[in-house]
Design a protein that fits this description.
Layout: H1 9-19, H2 43-60, H3 65-76
């Protein structure tokens, strides 16, 4: 998240804390373990929901819808 323009360490940490429960099951472990390519069994539905939540968070931070969608789709690529 800190790689996004305008998102610093504090904002990224706040987003992680606020979205922690919503992102459970999105990836192999919790948010504080390194990412792996493993995915949960229902990764399609969970991934789409998590992507929508991420876009909503970016919109709340003032990003334009096209910017938010583009960034989230780039991050969500397998």
């Amino acid at each position: 998240l800190v790689k996004l323009p305008g998102v610093g360490k504090k904002t990224a940490e706040r987003l992680v804390v606020e979205m922690k429960d919503r992102l459970k099951g999105w990836g192999a472990g919790d948010l504080f373990t390194p990412f792996t390519d493993a995915a949960p069994a229902d990764s399609g539905a969970t991934s789409n929901n998590a992507e929508e939540e991420a876009i909503s968070a970016l919109l709340a931070l003032g990003y334009k819808p096209t910017q938010a969608s583009k960034v989230v789709s780039q991050i969500a690529k397998p």
